[in-house]
Amino acid sequence: MTTDPKAPTAAGSGADATDRFKTDKAGPGADTPPERVDVLAREVLAAVHAIIRRHTVTYAEYNALKAWMIDVGETGEWPLFLDVWVEHVVEDVATEHRKGNKGTIEGPYYVPNAPDRGPRGSVPTRSGEPGTPLVWTGQVTSTDGRALAGARIELWHADANGLYSQFAPGIPEWNLRATFTADDEGRFEIHTVRPAPYRIPTDGACGRLIAAAGWHSWRPAHLHVKVSAPGHELLTAQLYFSGDAHNDDDIASAVKPELVLEPRPTTGGAGEGVAYDFALDPVRA
Ligand code: MBD
Ligand code: FE
Fold first, then answer.
1. For ligand 1, is residue 194 a contact (CB within 6 Å)?
2. Which one of 165, 167, 198 would you pick to mutate in the ligand 1 pocket, going by the greatest count of ligand atoms within 8 A of its CB?
3. What is the CA(152)–ligand 2 centre distance, in A?
4. Does 163 contact ligand 1 (Cβ within 6 A)?
5. What is the DSSP letter of 206?
6. Crossing angle, helix 59-74 and helix 78-85, to 10 degrees?
7. Whose Cα sits closest to atom 1 in ligand 1?
8. What SS3 state is found at 140?
9. What is the mean pLDDT of residues 30-35?
């Protein structure tokens, strides 16, 4: 079998995602009191025990699980595994109270401090960046309708081959990653290209689980954003594209109807345009 040297290996992108997580998020713990650790750990273990009894899990299966979990760790795929199969429920629970924009999971490939582009501009691209040009205009408001001047829109997404800069080899560091700052009316205009669907690497532990279970490995094409403004809750979301074959069976269960874009061809141009606004919830008293 020949492999494309540019294709990210599971171990390569996994190691990068694990390093990123350690740098950004694995600092102080959640300061969880022992009573809560006790109940959460006990209920997780009780659920596992019940499944073993219900399905008469064998020693061969137990050892296969053990080997697989060791592999997930050695190839750095815990961020990928958890964000694909667990994060969506954490996100649902964390944002249930919101009245503003729907969010969804962050996933493993966010990098903070992407280059600033002001209220209007192009994300960093390679010359001849493949993909349909996309112009996205929008406005950030508070849930009461007040414009949020200076709101930050951090954007990151895969390229037209489904690959993320800093997690796949051979792509410039900040490619398709940028930070926009809304103008006095909360408005912004982003020039980028349409991403391709993302495929979970098939050569790693997560890929082996997918193959062994007979699942598919696709996420629909998506744009990731974090939208923030002083006094408001951080919104982490993804925007999808109407008509994508995987909007209805995202392997990461992260599509919501409110997050699906309908871009239109731009008059006279080769690209597409779309409007999408954000309403942020004020921080709760
Ligand atoms: C992605 O690009 C992603 O957004 C998620 C949630 C998981 C794996 C890859
Ligand atoms: Fe993604």
1. no
2. 198
3. 19
4. no
5. H
6. 110
7. 107
8. strand
9. 89
Question: Which residue, among 246, 247, 270, has the nearest Cα to 194 in the 3D structure?
Answer: 270
Q: Is the CB of 91 under 6 A from ligand 1?
A: no
Q: Burial level of 121, CB count in 10 A (0-12/13-18/19+)? A: middle
Give tens-digit pLDDT for 210-268.
999 999 999 999 999 999 999 999 999 999 999 999 999 999 999 999 999 999 999 77
Looking at domain 10-31+77-280, its CATH class is mainly beta
Whole-number pLDDT of residue 26: 84
Residues whose CB falls within 8 Å of the CB of residue 52, separated by 6 or more in sequence, listed in order: 62
**Ligand 1 touching residue 107 (CB < 6 A):** yes
Q: What is the pLDDT of residues 114-173, one digit of tens each?
A: 999 999 999 999 999 999 999 999 999 999 999 999 999 999 999 999 999 999 999 999
Mean pLDDT of the 101-122 span: 98
- Determine contact, residues 212/61, Cβ cutoff 8 Å: no
Cα gap 193→223, rounded to integer Å: 10
C-alpha 113 – ligand 1 centre gap (Å): 19
In the numeric block, which tokens belong to residue 80?
A: 């990928």
Position 146, amino acid: R
Q: Is 252 in the pocket of ligand 1 (CB under 6 A)?
A: yes
